Amino acid sequence: MDRQQLLSLLSNDPDVIEAVREIARDTRSSRETMAVRTFKRDVAKWTKEMAAETHTNFTAIQNGLYGVLRTKLKLKSMNGLTDDQVPEARELFNQYKQFMA
Fold this sequence. Notes:
The structure is a single chain. By secondary structure, the protein is mainly alpha-helical. The protein has one domain (3-100). The chain contains five helices and no strands. It has helices at residues 3-11, 14-28, 34-54, 58-73, 86-100. The longest helix is centred in the middle third of the chain and has 21 residues, at 34-54. The protein is globular, with a radius of gyration of 15 Å. The chain starts with a helix and ends with a helix.
């Protein structure tokens, strides 16, 4: 098995995807405040649960939510989320969860 085949196999495993995301979050965490990290962890937990429950791709669910958040909060990326924006982001997240229920 070559490198590309191995990467292809691993990229389809939700546990591997989540582990890679955890590593990336840990790397970025020094720039993020506790409020932002907690919010993103809550989003990741819900997204993982929703993906398992609906047999839908984790990334598709996360991208849908992040698209709403970036648009409403006028963010270039989720890395730009600030403490001041977390309450509004959480409210939008709760509305999104109700919409998806």
